[in-house]
Structure formats: structure tokens, C-alpha cells
Amino acid sequence: xARMNVRIEKDTNEVKYIxxxxxxxxxxxxxxxxxxxxxxFILSYNLLETDExxxxxxxxxxxxxxxxxxxxx
Length: 73
Fold this sequence. Notes:
Layout: E1 3-8, H1 14-24, H2 29-37, E2 43-46, H3 50-65, E3 70-72
Antiparallel strand pairs: 1-2, 1-3
Helix pairs in contact: 1-2
């Protein structure tokens, strides 16, 4: 199954990113913070599911507006 993974580079605006991810995903604050600190993938979506890709696009757009350095794999 083809998947797209998203990673956020850690910087001083981490609180903004946690807030966005907390509102748009079911991850806890501590889980999101730990993923960012460990440089792990924050989000993972199936490339064959259109609804998931649209949701990912929305979340990545919000993160980019907040100044996040987003890496997509």
C-alpha cells in the first residue's frame, strides 16, 4: 500500500504546530510533541484514498501558514 508521510522540523514555533495538529487529528498534545522532538512522522496517509489526501492537504496548508518546515515522504 502506497503511503505518504509527513514530518515537521523542530523550531521555536512548535506550540503553533501542536495546536493545529491537536485540532485536526486525534493525537494528544504529548504525543505530537514527542513525535516532533524525535523527528518522527507526524501524519501518514494512504495515497489511494482521495478523502485522506484532501485532509492531508488541508492540514499541511495550515502548518505552512503557521511557518512550519514540512517534509513529505
